[in-house]
Design a protein that fits this description.
This protein is mostly helical. Helix content is 43%, strand content 9%. The chain contains 20 helices and eight strands. It has helices at residues 22-28, 42-69, 81-85, 118-126, 135-152, 163-174, 180-183, 189-199, 206-225, 245-248, 254-261, 264-267, 287-298, 302-306, 349-353, 356-365, 383-397, 409-420, 425-432, 454-461, and strands at 7-10, 13-19, 32-36, 93-98, 108-113, 313-316, 319-324, 343-346. The strands form three sheets. It has a three-stranded antiparallel sheet with strand order 1-2-3, with helices on one face. A three-stranded antiparallel sheet has the order 6-7-8. It has a two-stranded antiparallel ribbon with strand order 4-5. Residues 70-114 and 438-450 have low confidence and may be disordered.
């Protein structure tokens, strides 16, 4: 194996030595600089020595620049421990000082400082081309970093963020009220915390705290990988979430479902605009009509439904199916939540009875790209954000609103219905795009090729029914 020049071992640990130019030897009072690479692996040592060589070279150049500007500065100087500590860092901060008393030149301090703040680190992280992020994710990150910087401080360098500071951030987040920056824009976060404690305001959930700490940990881990710092001081700083996953969102009750699907929008409204909740003789069948029904009978996520292209509902082996995919066949970017999300979902017989296929064919005739062109994208780029706001208002207008229920509750209704109908667990996972138990690969992937046949999936989803929910007033095909 070919050895890199300057690379050698002390015991089991690899070292890297650079011989200094003669004029630098005179100034530093030494012939070389040797640094431990702190690894037993030769492959890892190769990686680290490149970064170390770069920083040593930068240090040598800084010494040359100083001596060129101060010719009298030619006495040996001391390299403190900070140089050795930050040798792996892109934010090299080497400080060496020596008081000299030449005829004209006063005391001189050698200082090479290249520090990076959390905001600068965030900007570099977001510009990394290795990761693709949706507009919604970018917006979420930008909001979160604003909170983190507000707590840590605008001018605090990444190198100065230690374990103690990370715990301080976590402590402040645990006491921070919801929507703090919007509700109290002119107050510091520490003042907000004090005021929130005094007034006993509702504070962030464990999930929200972990979201902020997760971003901080992600940034610091990235900084380690880039050589900015040596270790991630925020590792493991998470908050136990005492709310069970199943309790965060509830399914709609039978009473709520009946109120939703007998509201004026379904029973007859004045119009499909602002008067959708006013009784009338109009029965529009656009996104507002179809999206909740598809959610109830397919278990699809709101964004999966809203971003459907016209070509995403088609016959496969003579079975009408929703094809949940990120394939770019619409005029907006499509996003799926997880790898398991890509799947086939047969169209439930009830949706066919309600006239869904006729709607699809009409969309094809009009040469629509998206199944629901009446849904406008939100500023996040997501169609679902626009519909979600509408649906929240709709629940209140139809007197169907209840705590811990939202559009996502349809997905809980669907999963409960799968259980009640004794649909096989693995098939249910495939239909809903859920990860398998233990997160072992993608069960949903089995719906393709040699997995579950489309007819088998159709037979299972056809078993789903909702006792007590009467949709006879919406049925087109009553045969």
């Amino acid at each position: 194996m070919r050895r890199v020049q300057g690379l050698w071992k002390r015991g089991e640990i690899w070292q890297y030595r650079v011989k200094l130019p003669k004029h630098i030897q005179n100034i530093l009072g030494r012939q070389d600089i040797n640094r431990s690479l702190r690894t037993r692996s030769y492959r890892e040592a190769i990686k680290r020595c490149r970064s170390t060589a770069y920083h040593i070279d930068a240090y040598i150049k800084s010494v040359e620049n100083l001596t060129n500007n101060h010719p009298a500065y030619n006495a040996p100087i001391h390299i403190p421990a900070t140089f050795d500590e930050r040798m792996q860092s892109l934010s090299l901060e080497v400080s060496a000082s020596k008081t000299v008393t030449p005829t004209v030149t006063p005391t001189v301090t050698l200082s090479v400082s290249s520090t990076i703040t959390l905001r600068q680190l965030f900007q570099q992280y977001m510009s990394d081309p290795k990761t693709k992020r949706s507009p919604k994710t970018v917006m979420s990150y930008e909001n979160a970093i604003g909170v983190l910087i507000g707590i840590i401080g605008e001018d605090v360098t990444v190198a100065d963020i230690d374990r103690f500071k990370c715990r301080q951030v976590q402590s402040v987040l645990l006491s921070l009220p919801t929507n703090a920056s919007k509700r109290f824009p002119d107050m510091t976060y520490r003042d907000i915390v004090a005021m929130a404690s005094e007034k006993r305001l509702t504070t962030l959930s464990a999930r929200s705290v972990n979201k902020y700490m997760g971003l901080l940990s992600t940034l610091l881990r990235w900084a380690v990988n880039e050589g900015v710092i040596e270790t991630n001081p925020s590792l493991g700083l998470t908050v136990a979430d005492t709310v069970r996953k199943r309790d965060k969102r509830h399914p709609f009750s039978q009473h709520q479902l009946q109120r939703i699907f007998t509201a004026p929008l379904y029973a007859g409204c004045k119009d499909d605009g602002r008067s959708y909740y006013v009784p009338g003789d109009q029965r529009p069948r656009r996104a507002r009509f179809w999206v909740p029904l598809i959610g109830l009978y397919s278990g699809m996520r709101l964004n999966e439904i809203c971003q459907l292209g016209v070509g995403d509902c088609r016959q496969i082996e003579e079975v009408w199916c929703f094809v949940v995919t990120e394939d770019a066949n619409t005029d907006v970017d499509k996003h799926l939540k997880t790898m398991n999300s890509e799947r086939l979902v047969p169209v439930h017989p009830m949706l066919i009875r309600l006239g869904w296929i006729a709607y699809v064919r009409k969309a094809q005739q009009k040469k629509f790209k998206r199944m629901f062109p009446d849904i406008e994208p939100a500023s996040t780029g997501y169609l679902s954000d626009t519909f979600s706001k509408f649906f929240s208002r709709f629940l209140k207008k139809s007197s169907a609103h209840a705590p811990k229920t939202s559009f996502h509750s349809f997905r809980h209704n669907f999963r409960d219905a799968l259980r009640e109908c004794d649909v096989r667990h693995e098939v249910g996972l495939a239909l809903g795009g859920w990860a398998s138990d233990g997160d072992r690969g993608s069960e949903a992937h089995n719906a393709y090729g040699g997995g579950y046949l489309v007819h088998a999936l159709y037979d299972e989803i056809s078993k789903i029914e909702y006792q007590g929910l009467d949709l006879i007033h919406l049925v087109v095909d009553r045969g």
